[in-house]
Design goal:
Number of helices: 2
Radius of gyration: 31 Å
Largest sheet: none
InterPro entries: ARF7EP_C (IPR029264)
Pfam families: ARF7EP_C
Organism: Meleagris gallopavo
Order of helices and strands: HH
Protein name: ADP-ribosylation factor-like 14 effector protein
Strand content: under 5%
Length: 93
């Protein structure tokens, strides 16, 4: 009973694939190295810091139109009045 159980717990058990583990070739290690090295991520799109979309009058810079943030040409404004300019189109900051 007890002695057999104790002897069994003391016996060597094969650890299996754990002995074959090599950190240099593991997926986790490769992923960790890729996140640390930006040259691996060269295919990812780099998003610049917030750039201006509207001019000082609230018109879109790329086409000069007076559009709401929802970009619907018929929209009169989706937001409460802006504390800076009073427009209902500029949204929240």
């Amino acid at each position: 009973g007890r002695t057999a159980k104790a002897l069994k717990s003391l016996q060597f058990t094969n650890p299996g694939r754990q002995t074959e583990f090599t950190p240099e070739t593991s997926k986790r290690e490769k992923r960790r190295l890729q996140t640390k090295n930006p040259s691996f991520n060269s295919d990812r799109q780099v998003i610049p810091a917030k750039s201006k979309v509207y001019d000082s009058q609230g018109l879109l810079l790329y086409n000069g139109m007076d559009l709401c943030d929802c970009l619907d040409e018929d929209c009169l404004g989706c937001f409460y009045a802006c504390p800076k300019c009073g427009s209902n189109k500029c949204g929240t900051e």
